């Protein structure tokens, strides 16, 4: 094997290795489950323990709602699409009384609003805890984005947020169900932005300030 052929093989191998490393670096924020960042949540004074690996998922998504034109029976009503940030933090798994496996989790969903800081719009917070499901009450609940920074290619952003929510357990009648308090914060959470999501340039202003 001559020297020229050896050099050619080495260059090809180096190109493959570098291409793989670059792809891994670029696409690392697009993985489904993530571990970076910081998250703490307390439920009625008890710490919510996240699982050891694949602790959360965070992605911008397109969501639609029916827009009714004069009648609730109009099946041809157009769809109003909004960009939402959907975050899920996973807790530990356990077996319930029936022997079924269950997993604790906290879900946050709100309208992304082009990256604005301050109180989130259209927020929906769900909690699965101790084998029960809870939903946030509009009164007495806050979810405030305190930082948002974009990646250079705008395929991801990094956010901080504080939350303090009253959560009511699912059940009938609703008024009779117990209420718990969910409080905590998240820092440097990596939110993936799929290629089909369209966002405008974010503005760094807090609503109500």
Task: Name the features.
11-stranded antiparallel sheet, single chain, mainly beta, 12% helix, 209 residues, 2 domains, globular, disordered C terminus
The coarse overall form would be globular
Helix run count: 1
Average pLDDT metric? 80
Fraction in helix:
10-25%
Radius of gyration equals: 22 Å
**Measured distance between first and last alpha carbons:** 72 Å
Order of helices and strands: HEEEEEEEEEEE
* Largest sheet data: 11 strands, antiparallel
Which consecutive residue ranges, at least 5 long each, have pLDDT under 50? 6-12, 14-28, 66-73, 203-209
Number of folding domains? 2
Number of strands: 11
* Beta-strand content: over 45%
Structural class: mainly beta
Structure characterization notes:
The chain has 209 residues and is mostly beta strands. The chain has 2 domains: 1-28; 31-192, no CATH class. Helix content is 12%, strand content 48%. The protein contains 1 helix and 11 strands; from the N terminus they run αβββββββββββ. Strands 1, 2, 3, 4, 5, 6, 7, 8, 9, 10 and 11 form an 11-stranded antiparallel β-sheet that branches. The radius of gyration is 22 Å and the shape is globular.
């Amino acid at each position: 094997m001559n020297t020229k052929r050896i050099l050619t093989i080495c260059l090809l191998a180096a190109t493959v290795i570098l291409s793989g490393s670059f792809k891994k670096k670029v696409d690392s924020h697009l993985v489904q489950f993530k571990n970076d960042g910081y998250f703490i949540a307390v439920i009625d004074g008890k710490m919510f323990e996240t699982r050891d690996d694949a602790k959360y998922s965070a992605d911008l998504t397109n969501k639609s709602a029916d827009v009714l034109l004069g009648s609730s029976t109009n099946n041809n009503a157009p769809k109003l699409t909004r960009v939402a940030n959907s975050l899920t933090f996973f807790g530990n798994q356990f077996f319930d009384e029936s022997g079924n496996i269950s997993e604790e989790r906290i879900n946050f969903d709100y309208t992304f609003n082009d990256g604005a800081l301050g109180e989130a719009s259209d927020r929906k917070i769900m909690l699965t805890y101790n084998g029960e499901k809870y939903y946030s009450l509009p009164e007495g609940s806050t979810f405030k984005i305190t930082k948002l920074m974009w990646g250079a290619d705008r395929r991801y952003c990094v956010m901080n947020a504080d939350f303090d929510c009253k959560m009511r357990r699912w059940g009938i009648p609703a008024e009779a169900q117990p209420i718990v308090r969910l409080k905590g914060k998240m820092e440097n959470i990596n939110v993936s932005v799929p290629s089909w999501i369209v966002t405008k340039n974010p503005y760094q202003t807090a609503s109500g300030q």
